[in-house]
Amino acid sequence: MPWNINDAIHHTHKATTLKLKRLWVKVANKERKKRGDKRAIKIANAAVRGAKKRVV
């Protein structure tokens, strides 16, 4: 079952906007297929962290 925005809230506190939450979901679901749950969460969190730095 793919992750959704509610899952992003539980797995990262850095996704503060709807746009960042959508990014987390997109990356996590893509990576989940390739690498599994644990690694997908780490990669999605890193993507949100990187996107947040680019915005600021």
How would you sum up this structure, described in words?
The chain is mainly alpha-helical and 56 residues long. The chain has one domain. 79% of the residues lie in helices and 0% in strands. It has three helices and no strands. The protein has helices at 5-11, 18-35, 37-55. Helix 2 runs antiparallel to helix 3. The longest helix has 19 residues, at 37-55. The protein is globular, with a radius of gyration of 10 Å. It starts with a helix and ends with a helix. The mean pLDDT is 92.
Q: How is the topology of this model organized?
A:
Elements: H1 5-11, H2 18-35, H3 37-55
Helix pairs in contact: 1-2, 2-3
Question: Which structural traits does this protein have?
Answer:
globular, mainly alpha, 3 helices
Short description:
The chain has 56 residues and is an all-alpha fold.
Strand tally is 0
| Low-pLDDT windows of residues | none
Structural class: mainly alpha
Helix content: over 70%
Number of domains: 1
Q: Into which percentage range does the β-strand content fall? A: under 5%
Q: Compute the gyration radius: what is it?
A: 10 Å
The total count of helices amounts to 3
